[in-house]
Predict the structure.
Amino acid sequence: MNRRILVDDKLAPSILNGGRFSWGHNRICNFQKSDIPFLILMKLQFHQASLDLIKSDAFMTDPPALLAKYPPSVREWYSLANGVSLLTQYSNQDVPLPPEKFVPHEYKDKELIEFMYENQGVVWWAFEFNELDDPPVYINLDPPPDNWVLCCDRFSTFIYTRLFDFYHWLDQNNIVMGSGRPVGASMEKNLQNEFSLEPVTYGWPGARQIRFSQGGIKITIHDDSQQSISNWYFSADSPEALRNIFNHFKHLFEWYHPHDLAD
């Protein structure tokens, strides 16, 4: 049986020789090469908030050598034993690529590495291959031709928002959708006063994606003023909480699903 070692901030392994791990810490544990386990349970530098969100531990594997050239945030995520499978699970059947199948793109003055595409190829996601530890993510809108726009300023933010948006996706009883007018400045301010603001992303679906949370309640809004529409997605840990939060905003919607949720 493979041994697992719990590593926290006070005991962060560098494991430079045997496991080819380097997490930017100058702390070296007394491991011999033969002692290194296949799985290491540790606290992450870039993606801990994402795993905390889904209540998952970070089990690291010995990463493929090809990851060494990529930014630390990317290396950290794809060194997770289930990094690729989590992006598959928390999606609408989108297709994440393992590192050996990353696709390089040149766009203007940027070198982009495609790591995921939408289930019908409508959009692609890529991180910028640059000197930053946690590089920005770009989204290619309905190629060809290429139309790369900034999605978010950090790869770790992208990962977090994917897990946030699809947290309840597998249980349709805990999701409700509504469609109405674009989110105006006044409504956005009210939302920020009432809920915790989560990361905002851009590009698709909608011109921007605004997120809020409150306990187990999650709200994702695909807002598009040019198309004069916003699509709201509510999810919660219980049907009762979902019903309450949806009824709080139901008056904003011209259409919603499922229709039997509202009182």
Q: What stands out?
A: The chain has a mean pLDDT of 85. The chain has three domains: 4-70, 88-162, 167-257.
